[in-house]
């Protein structure tokens, strides 16, 4: 058991969390999205005041309808506020853990959006006005106000907020990234089977790019003799990319490759 705990501690200590990248790029984005969501909710609460109040925003596309949702996304578990909050908290913690351990900058895009959306709605429950549910006054709900002003597969039956939108956009990003990854996996498999030398060069340069990314963004903000500037990082990354283009050009001209 002690060895197991020691291995976990050792792995965590040596794990490259790329915190520098997350502090510079990810956290500002998350904070911006959270603040934007809170501002939008505050504006709705202060101006619309009464639940059920509606206002046209973009006629035929989006309208506003003020509603306090005591449940989870799109009104799920509205009858059980405690369960809704518990699920929201667990999902938020889970997403934060994924965010902490994620090292792929492309997958971090949807994770950022999901963390922002989940966190904004969870904390938004603390200040949202109370609502009436089954004759009882209930607190801890979420301010929803965005509604589609058209009906496509029941789209106008849902009322949501910006935080919900961040999560939905994240799902879209995940689908796109998955298709892109599948495409490149197939492309690499074909390259490996038909052009082994090309694949080996590609794999080596790709490994260099990943190592460069993780090395630069894992380093602290304090400069030392091994540190490189952001300009040098971009320059080196471009050189790796140009090296691959040069190799491919040589292959096409028949001077290298198979």
Question: Describe it for me?
Answer:
- This is Lipoprotein signal peptidase.
- The active site is at residues 144, 164.
- Belongs to the peptidase A8 family.
- It is found in: Cell membrane.
- InterPro entries: Peptidase_A8.
- The model has no long low-confidence stretch (mean pLDDT 87).
- This protein folds into 2 domains: 2-175, no CATH class; 195-249.
- The protein is α+β, with helices and mostly antiparallel strands and 258 residues long.
- The strands form 2 sheets. A 4-stranded antiparallel sheet has the order 1-2-5-6. It has a two-stranded antiparallel sheet with strand order 3-4.
- Strand 1 (54-58) and strand 2 form a beta hairpin.
- The chain has helices at 2-14, 19-48, 81-101, 105-124, 162-194, 196-218, 230-253, and strands spanning 54-58, 62-69, 131-133, 136-138, 142-148, 159-160.
């Amino acid at each position: 058991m002690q060895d197991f705990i020691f291995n976990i501690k050792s792995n965590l200590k040596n794990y490259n969390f790329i915190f520098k990248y997350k502090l510079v790029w990810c956290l500002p984005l998350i904070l911006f999205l959270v603040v934007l969501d809170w501002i939008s909710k505050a504006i709705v609460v202060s101006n619309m005041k009464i639940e059920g109040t509606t206002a046209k925003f973009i006629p035929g596309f989006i309208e506003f309808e003020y509603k306090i949702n005591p449940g989870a996304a799109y009104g799920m578990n509205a009858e059980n506020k405690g369960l809704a909050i518990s699920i929201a908290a667990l999902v938020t913690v889970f997403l934060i853990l994924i965010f902490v351990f994620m090292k792929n900058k492309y997958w971090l895009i949807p994770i950022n959006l999901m963390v922002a959306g989940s966190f904004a709605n969870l904390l938004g429950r603390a200040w949202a006005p109370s609502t009436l549910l089954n004759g009882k006054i209930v607190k801890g709900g979420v301010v929803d106000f965005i509604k589609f002003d058209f009906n496509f597969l029941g789209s106008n039956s849902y009322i949501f907020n910006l935080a919900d939108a961040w999560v939905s956009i994240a799902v879209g990003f995940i689908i796109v990234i998955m298709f892109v990854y599948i495409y490149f996996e197939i492309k690499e498999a074909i390259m490996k089977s038909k052009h082994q030398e090309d694949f080996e060069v590609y794999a080596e340069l790709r490994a260099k790019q990943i190592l460069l990314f993780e090395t630069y963004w894992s380093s602290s903000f304090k400069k030392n003799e091994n540190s490189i500037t952001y300009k040098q990082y971009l320059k080196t990354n471009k050189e790796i990319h140009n090296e691959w283009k040069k190799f491919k050009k040589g292959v096409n001209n028949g001077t290298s490759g198979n």
